[in-house]
Model the fold of this input.
Amino acid sequence: MKKKTLRDIAYSVLDLSPINEGSTAAESFKHTVGLAQHVEKWGYKRYWLAEHHNMPGIASSATSILIGQVAAHTSTIRVGSGGIMLPNHAPLVIAEQFGTLESLFPGRIDLGLGRAPGTDQLTAYALRRDRRSDGQDFPEQLAELQAYFNSEKLRVNAVPGRGLNIPIWLLGSSGFSAQLAGQLGLPFAFANHFSPENTLPALALYRNSFRPSHLLKEPYTIIGSNIIAADSNEEAKKLATSLQQQHLALIRNQPIPLQPPVDHIEALCSSYEHSILQQKLGGSIIGSPITVKRKLEKFIEETQANEIMVNGQIYDHQSRLHSFEIVSKIIKNH
Done:
């Protein structure tokens, strides 16, 4: 099989609709729409939004609503979830929501699914009400959701939803969803942006367990990756401290809005916390255009991914736009 290079793969966007320190969710949504419009022009394939709850720095909790807003303000880019945390919801509700989105924006909607709560345990209980909904029944929930999209008439039908062709993706940060996606012949998206040590094992498990289905004849992988690009290595390194501060707050179980960049992240954390940051964010690609290109080429060579989904948690909106534009130019000029 031919080895993939920069020009062989697609590029997409993962957006958590970050809320900056001193800003509001309303401003975050304007930035999300603006970023989506720009990356559509720059040739990105899809724009996914992630479900998180009780996070003061993430505005994409009502994920389906925000997907509709992004799709309404763009025209060609695919828009979807990266992902919907299915155990938080009744499968029928998700089938109806995405059936509605697909009816409004035909041929442009993706449904990425995860089984984690996307929040802390107390908030998960507030969402789910039933402590038995711990993700262990995810395969059964998935099968129920898929059934609602089938054309056959059931006793309970998703309207809209029944008979619509909405691509389903499984998302994961370990082996469970990788293996399930392979067994079901579904495409798989891996969260390298916060679980880099599990990336290669999960991809191998997915590919080794893959069984062709009517949906997919051979494995297809998306890798979510932190990519922060700037005109110089020094500037990119400083921009990346906002992402590092966000994860530092999660390590301390004290989530906060996205913080302005600082000169030295080491000054804000202990050596132990810094080592955890390096572990969780070690797969990040940070630097100048030359550095990002070199690291991206190496990353593609190692993973042989079909698609890279760029997560760019950058405090300043113009710097964030510039980062995504740099990545698009790296691809186009290769």
Observations:
- The longest strand covers residues 221-229.
- Residues 184 and 211 are 7 Å apart (CA to CA).
